[in-house]
Amino acid sequence: MATAQKPTAPVTSVQSRINIDAPRWDLTTFTGRLKHFFWVTDPRTIVCSNKQLDNAKELLEQYRTGQEPPGTTKQQIWYAKKLYMSAFHPDSGERQNVIGRMSCQVPGGMLITGCLLQFYRTNTAVVFWQWVNQSFNALVNYTNRNAQSGITERQIAVAYVSATTCAVITAIGLKRYLAMKAASQLMQRFVPFAAVASANIVNIPLMRQSELLDGIACFDENGQKVTESRYAAAKGISQVVCSRITMAAPGMLLTPIIMKRLETLSWMKRIQSLHVVVQTLLVGCTLLVMVPTGCALFNQKCSIPVERLRLLDSKKLEELKEKYGEHTPKRLYFNKGL
């Protein structure tokens, strides 16, 4: 005897739409930020043409208004967002120069760092590669600054010259000191890291000095600009400095140790001219992991309690309370940069 079948629920063909203005992962957690930056800093995106990037931006604008081409898939939308976030500034929406993008940190950083670690024996090589590195860093710092804070050509020049000078003085001075102390060759290979770390401490704050002098734009939880804060700028810039040094440390500290061991092997002794290639590849492997890790250390959308304005922005706090009264925001949010 046949049994009656229960009616099945109708299947809808309407798919839920992606909220392209919300992050794909939870950026309040380190794991979420790590997944996000592995996605955004993918070095393969730097080979995309300007036309591809502009098409991705256009597709997102169409999707936002529900006017995307028929048959557009979720995968296409996610890929368009990946291209957009890798190449366009989050504040201004302008397309960034290729070398300054975080997605260029792996190929650009591995080439320069590999040469920094390989060519450390002569002062001429040290000066040249520190200059190349600081030129690269200056462009990255300028590209990933908070775009709502202006900076003059003079300020850019001062930051660039100061950071390069600091890196060269640190590298040459420490190299001579270690030579006087008859330090091992391995110790001398750590000199480039000391120079890079000290230059980052100088370069980033100087490149973003207008934020420290005039304050960084701060917003309420609804995204409305409410004030500027020098305290917020100091917090954001200090976190960026920490992130950049963290990115560089494993590659510049572990690679010399690995190379020291490899150079004792017979096959490595036969290919001395290729040591720079091996060293560069080792640095590249560490940067593939450390660039997203460094970016993920702190949330790019940083926040501070409004009462922290008392430390450096007491007048701004008074103006806020006078303007908003009991509705004064409890927390302020800002883009710390990368």
Which helices and strands appear, and what pairs or packs with what?
Elements: H1 30-40, H2 50-64, H3 74-87, H4 105-118, H5 123-143, H6 153-180, H7 185-188, H8 191-207, H9 209-214, E1 216-219, E2 225-229, H10 230-262, H11 266-269, H12 275-296, E3 301-305, H13 309-312, H14 314-324, E4 331-335
Antiparallel strand pairs: 1-2, 3-4
Helix pairs in contact: 1-12, 2-3, 4-5, 4-12, 5-6, 5-8, 6-8, 8-10, 10-12
Brief summary of the model shown:
The chain is mainly α and 338 residues long. It has 14 helices and four strands.
Task: Give a written overview of the molecule.
This protein is mainly α. Helices cover 60% and strands 6% of the residues. It has 14 helices and 4 strands. A hairpin with a 5-residue loop joins strand 1 (216-219) and strand 2 (225-229). Residues 1-14 have low confidence and may be disordered.
